[in-house]
Amino acid sequence: MTSRSAPAIRLAPSILAADFANLGAEIAAVTRGGADQVHVDVMDGHFVPNITIGVAVVKSLRKVTRLPLDVHLMIEDPDRYIEPFIEAGANMVSVHVEVLPHLHRTISQIKTLGAMAGVVLNPSTPVSSIEEIAAEVDFVLVMSVNPGFGGQVFIPNSLKKVGAVRALLNRAGNSAPIEVDGGVDLDTVESVVRAGAEWLVAGNAIFGTPDAERAARAIKAKAEAALPQ
Ligand code: DX5
Ligand code: ZN
Q: CA-CA distance, 18 to 24, in Å (whole number)?
């Protein structure tokens, strides 16, 4: 069993819920509120019903923030777009196991291009689907809603799943963090952290409030207080 460094919270506000006409100001606000990375939801209208952000937006975001850009690809053919997103400034790239028959190759490609590689599990996708890749990933993203839209209700079974992913990573000798995405707010954040998540995506709970800076600070403080001592 390898030793694991102490868990550390990273707050990843999802700009999907932000004002797209004011992304620079929205990101500046959450940065003051303690955001650690910016979560960018890329959707293609095929893998998920919604269409959102592309490479050009990531390129523009790169110019307005020094925070790492955490790009979540909810698209049918991620292999085609990994390189352009990393060239545009993505620091983390996460891909859904549901669309990738050659997941090992995809993960290797992300790393070779210099970004952190994450795998994403939809709510109905079993933890066992990442068993053979568990030693290789830089992080695992557990979806706690069905991908496609912000502002959905947290699926309680996700907590058990986070625990199972943590156990799998530990067995593989990998201390990679677990990211949780969907329905994370002041009511759910403590249980998510206690379950073993360290990277927390929050969209509506931050940008859906009148004061994004304050909301980010409050969620991060609650998350940090919930970390195991
Ligand atoms: C959902 C996206 C999420 C979304 C989270 O498909 O992957 O990142 O923006 O939004 P909230 O925090 O509002 O559930
Ligand atoms: Zn996301």
A: 10
User: Cα–Cα distance between 46 and 186 in angstroms, integer?
Assistant: 32
Known catalytic residue: 41?
Answer: yes
Task: Determine the Cα–Cα distance for residues 198 and 151; give it in Å rounded to an integer.
Answer: 21
pLDDT tens readout for residues 99-114: 999 999 999 999 999 9
Please name the CATH architecture into which domain 10-225 falls. Answer: Alpha-Beta Barrel (3.20)
d(CA 190, CA 131): 27
Q: List beta partners, residue 118.
A: 94, 139
Inter-helix orientation angle 23-32/212-226, to 10°: 40
In tens, the pLDDT along 126-173 reads 999 999 999 999 999 999 999 999 999 999 999 999 999 999 999 999
Question: Domain locations in the chain?
Answer: 10-225
* Main-chain phi, psi angles of 96, to 5 degrees: -80, 130
Amino acid 66: pLDDT: 98
Single-letter amino acid, residue 163: G
Ligand that comes closest to the CA of residue 70: 2
* 146 CA closest ligand 1 atom index: 6
- The confidence band for 49, taking pLDDT boundaries of 50, 70 and 90, is very high
- Residue of the CA atom closest to atom 1 of ligand 1: 147
| pTM, two decimal places | 0.97
pLDDT value at residue 229: 77
